[in-house]
């Protein structure tokens, strides 16, 4: 296919525009990483741009020597894993019946779900509900209230709608009940959608901050984001002999940059393994047969 002059210019403009957008996102991250590996003198002098100056691991040693960082990391991993599992299970189990025409009252349920998407409850009613359910200061306060996202539910439902009815009917003819059809037929065909929803839910749980501040006063369960916020805004570090020694070698800005890297790295490491399914899942519901 031969492109016209206008098409070539359009492609060039697209490449330049997307390149600028990409650089505007990548360069700040590179700068953050460079500062996290730079020494205090270079950071305070403003000599660090996109490459570490006076390479040092002192900022990371300071953070990782704090036991509360490891406790927050463990809590965040638990909330992310358990919360994502609950989200996927609850969302798919509600989306599947809402996608089948033979189930009664599905339209009424969809209206109620849509209502929650348009009109979300404010903080005080949410807090009172969590309190009345006895979930305050328990990990369930960060898991159960966010079990289903209405937006993700509609995306999952649109994927289930595209599953051929012939497959469902064949499973029923072979003697499969509703639950067996769901587990053995529907879910295996829904891996792209589940991967997409899993990434969205996992990122939301990993970055969970406000709910932890409102619902958790017991520091046993505080996630990593709450602890890192204390470091970034109050410079509160765990007290130890290693910490006292490293405080003289690091810059507060370098420590904050290292905190950002520590909080971002786990999700960035998970994404490449789900990238293929994620890209497929982004097309969910966009093509109708």
From TrEMBL:
Short name of any one Pfam family annotated for the protein: BPD_transp_1
SUPFAM superfamilies according to UniProt: MetI-like
Keyword Lyase attached: no
Entry-linked InterPro entries: MetI-like, MetI-like_sf
Transmembrane annotation, as ranges: 12-34, 77-96, 108-128, 140-160, 181-204, 254-274
UniProt keyword list: Cell membrane, Membrane, Transmembrane, Transmembrane helix, Transport
Coiled-coil stretches: none
CDD domains assigned to the protein according to its UniProt record, in alphabetical order: TM_PBP2 (cd06261)
Membrane-topology annotation of the record: Multi-pass membrane protein
One GO term of the biological process aspect: transmembrane transport
Positions of the ABC transmembrane type-1 domain: 73-274
Compartment(s): Cell membrane
Name of protein: Carbohydrate ABC transporter permease
Organism: Paenibacillus arenilitoris
